Amino acid sequence: KLTIAIFYLSVVLYSQATNPFISELLEQVNQQNLSKHVCVLSGADSVRINKINTIITCRQVGHPDHDKARDYLKSVLKEYGYQPEEVYFYWYDHEICNLLAIKPGCLYPNQTYILCAHYDSYNPTAGEPAPGADDNASGIAAVLESARILQNVTTDYSIIFAFWDAEEKGRWGSEHYAFNADQDNDTILGVINLDMIAYDPASQFTFSINTDTCAGSIDFANTLANLTSDYCDDLRTVIYNPGSMLSDHQKFWSYGFKAALISEAYRDGAQYLYYHTAQDTYEKLNFEFLTRMSRFALATISSLAGATTFDLVSESTIAPEKFTLSQNYPNPCNSSTTVRFTIPQVGSPTLILFNILGEELAVLSQQIQS
Description:
Elements: H1 20-26, H2 31-41, E1 47-49, E2 52-54, H3 64-79, E3 85-91, E4 94-103, E5 108-118, H4 133-150, E6 153-155, E7 157-164, H5 172-183, E8 187-194, E9 206-210, H6 217-231, E10 236-240, H7 249-254, E11 259-264, H8 287-304, E12 307-310, E13 324-325, E14 341-342, E15 350-354, E16 360-366
Parallel strand pairs: 5-7, 5-8, 8-11, 9-10
Antiparallel strand pairs: 1-2, 3-4, 4-7, 6-12, 9-11, 13-14, 15-16
Helix pairs in contact: 1-8, 2-4, 4-8, 6-8
């Protein structure tokens, strides 16, 4: 089946509270991408890592597959255009590694929002796998998808897409980062922690925002809830106060940073029965729910960070030296995509769309261009 996407203009009415550009970004969230990441990280699908086909059966600290998961995340982030930063440190006799992808802000590069998830998994039963599909391949997938979509988007504030290690050991990865951020007087404006966001057995599409009295986190939770109403009215929000302390956001609270845990509505009918077991596998998950939750994550981080427009820094008033045809963006796409090209002098270039069989489908441009 062949799907053709033609760029077009349309007039849409938005409420005063919403940013039309962010609404456009949300349309780019791709459920197939989310499913792929969850299936690879939970061992349902094989993946090629370091030129070897492998299956990630377990992401527990100390397990051989744990490092494969990190290598997979690094390869995906590089594919999306980032230079991931590995932060290694020792905790007791374990070598721990946080993985960071940093998107500098244009106006306030030293002020940062963090969108994060932990990438390790856990099963207390020795010898059994720890696939961790919901806990927390679901959160990882949503962070990766936001990183993909925002890579070419201009933001006022910096964004750190963070993948914490050793959350299941006692939140060692986030402890290390939050401690050093406090010591360095980093300006962290807010931390959005995604942990277990794909279990919704009754398709109620309800999730929880977990907050506390620390550092203005209650107001932060209310802001996130309002953004849900603005951009994701197909989700229902419940605020838990006091919320769960059992994830990486708690370490930021302990050092005085504003933070919130985004999770399933575990107090309202969505308590996960397969938590920390070998049965935490992809078929237990509601991928439509995960897709909506990923849109919420993207809406919040892009709104808070001040997403304004696609990055067009490659455009210049100076005439290009040669003809270029760039990869369309976004790719994959749904209803629209943008094809960018340059020509070294005024002319009438012809831009033609072909299908995979080489058959001409449409002439997209055939007019004088500067």
